[in-house]
Structure formats: C-alpha cells, structure tokens
Amino acid sequence: MESHISTIDAITFVTSDMQDSVAFYQNLGMRVRYGGETAQFTSLSAGNCHVNLVRGDPLENGFWGRVIFFVDDVDATYRQVLAAGYNTETEPADGSWGERYFHVRDPDGNELSFARRLDAGAEQ
C-alpha cells in the first residue's frame, strides 16, 4: 500500500528563548496546543496550521528546524522511504503529543517529519 502526503501540518523552529517565542506567536493570534513558555517543545496552532518551537541554539549542529507532512499512513510511508533506498533518522513511533511519526533528511540535510494524528477521527 502506498501512502500519500495530505498536507504540510507544521514547521518547527529552534528557539533560544521559549518564553519570548511563545509570546510572539500568541500575539500573532496562535494558541498553545502543547507545551508552553517553560517547555522544551511547544506547538501553537492557528486553524489547521501549526508552528512548533524546540528549545536550543539555532546555530548548533546546523539544525534550523523541520517541516512536518501529514500522511495517510506513517508506516507505509516509512516502508516507501526505505524501499527507495533512503535511511531514516528514526523509526515510526507514537509521540506523547498525540502523533505517530518518523524523521528523514533530504539530500541536502533538511529534516522532514512524516506524521499522522493517533486520534484517527481528528481533522488533518
């Protein structure tokens, strides 16, 4: 079974100051969905779009963040990636934030995440 990308759900940015970053996005009208000002990871939403923030040094290890694609079937997408000859950063796993996901890097090293909400009835 082949899986298909249905949408870009979120983009993740690295922030050195979670409190300031959360306040910034809240002032733009987004609401905290997971995490918050003191968390290591925060997800904010506006409609069906999300900005995720991860605490860290934006210049460390060349990590700028990641793009998250929602797919029909995370495990099928994982098998597709492996069958195409690519290595992944992680295997499919269920995250505490309510999504099944895995990470892979594109040929230029950009991190991509393929995910699906664990709540099958959730809108994507």
Task: Explain the layout of strands and helices.
Elements (H helix, E strand, L loop, with lengths): L4 E11 L2 H10 L3 E4 L6 E6 L2 E7 L9 E7 L2 H10 L9 E2 L4 E7 L5 E7 L7
Parallel strand pairs: 1-4, 5-8
Antiparallel strand pairs: 1-5, 2-3, 3-4, 6-7, 7-8
Description of the molecule:
The chain has 124 residues and is of the alpha+beta class. It has one domain (5-117): 2,3-Dihydroxybiphenyl 1,2-Dioxygenase, domain 1 (Roll). Helix content is 16%, strand content 41%. The chain has helices at 18-27, 74-83; strands at residues 5-15, 31-34, 41-46, 49-55, 65-71, 93-94, 99-105, 111-117. Strands 2-3-4-1-5-8-7-6 form an 8-stranded mixed sheet. A hairpin with a 4-residue loop joins strand 6 and strand 7 (99-105). The mean pLDDT is 85.
Search tags:
single chain, 124 residues, alpha+beta, 2,3-Dihydroxybiphenyl 1,2-Dioxygenase, domain 1, eight-stranded mixed sheet, 2 helices, 16% helix
Radius of gyration, whole Å: 15 Å
Encode the helix/strand succession as letters. EHEEEEHEEE
**DSSP strand content:** 35-45%
CATH class: Alpha Beta
Condensed summary:
With 124 residues, the chain is α+β, with helices and mostly antiparallel strands. The chain has helices at residues 18-27, 74-83, and strands spanning 5-15, 31-34, 41-46, 49-55, 65-71, 93-94, 99-105, 111-117.
